[in-house]
Amino acid sequence: xxxxxxxxxxxxxxxxxxxxxxxxxxxxxFSPNNSWIDWTDNxxxxxxxxxxxxNEWMARELRKRLNENRKLVLSGQYQSLQEEVRKEFExxxxxxxxxxxxxxxxIGQINWEKRINERLIALGEFCKTCEF
Length: 132
Description:
Distance between the termini: 35 Å
Largest sheet: 2 strands, antiparallel
Low-confidence stretches: none
Helix content: 55-70%
Number of strands: 2
Mean pLDDT: 91
Strand order of the largest sheet: 1-2
Number of helices: 5
Order of helices and strands: EHEHHHH
Structural class: mainly alpha
């Protein structure tokens, strides 16, 4: 399994100064051309989907913090927010890998799917594409 995920941000001052939220400025990316997933192995597929969901959590958490710290963002000093969220993501990713044995432990996998889903629901207002 090679799954290439990332975030893309567009925080150019001239483009964000009049925005009400920064939800459209942070994009959760999956790069299929730089990834390889054995689609026939259900545990690998679930693991990859959960990693994408965890990356979506990171995108929503960053959107939330950008929205909460508008003055900091508009001043161009938002890197600390990105770093905080990235560190939290790395800790969650590490814990997920350990608890689920990289998706091979079904009970750990299910527990983490629930945990990540709960986090996504809690950050629903920071979903880029959700309709409310």
